[in-house]
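agent: user wants the structure for Transglutaminase-like enzyme, putative cysteine protease from Rhizobium miluonense. delegating to structure tool.
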Amino acid sequence: MKLTISHITEYRYHEPTQFSLQRLRLTPLTGIGQTVSNWKLSVEGASPEVEYDDQFGNRVTLVSLDGQQEATRIVATGEVETQDLNGVVGQHVGFTPLWLFLRESPRTKAGKLTKELTRGLSGDSDLARMHALMTAIHKSVEYKPGTSDTETTAEQALEAKSGVCQDHAHIFIAGARALQIPARYISGYLMMEGKNEQAATHAWAEAHIPGLGWVGFDPANDVCPDARYVRIATGLCYRDACPVSGMRVGTPGETLTVKVSVASQGQGQSQSQSQS
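agent: tool returned. relaying tokens verbatim.
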């Protein structure tokens, strides 16, 4: 499937800002299951400083704003050809050791509710248990925008029984690691059939299964990623893979607007989304 993607992020500052430094993880890479045909990242109101691959293999563009500025506009566009591989991404590669993905982060610390969830899982293999975990999260935590934020932990989302795809991914990661299965967070794009004005860009998780390598699981939709999904960045949790992160010096206050469109050239379907 060939997907055409447009992602616009705009910050409007309540007062002219003096300085900001931002990391942009907005460049998908060619890999198993996806081929980037073309991709362009442009920034208005800030200057690119350097581009590099971080410890997780994410392509990062560092941009800075120095001087009085009222807005920053970031535009990422391109085309990606995808395949349906039933979520299988393949063996672990890169400088980050596999054991690191067993380490807890504040958002993925397994507490009482996570451990109760994993104790009820059935399955005679790691793969079967991960499928059971995905389905259990989908049934237990309602997709409900506005009930969580970027600092919400897996335990808090389980207690509230609601959240967004980011929370579903964090719960899955916490549960997998509690079972001593390496897991990681994935941020990316999803073409959603027949839906416009979506409340969030997408996030899911991957678990490392012996013999298969990394396998994707999307508890928000209770499916393994297929040709509708495009991977952009990965890490231990949201903090490592979020599309835009950084710091700003100056008068606090900003308005963030994000518009994402994803269209299949073969089917002519498109959507608009907002980033959480």
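agent: one observation worth passing along. Helices lie at 112-119, 126-140, 154-160, 165-178, 238-241.
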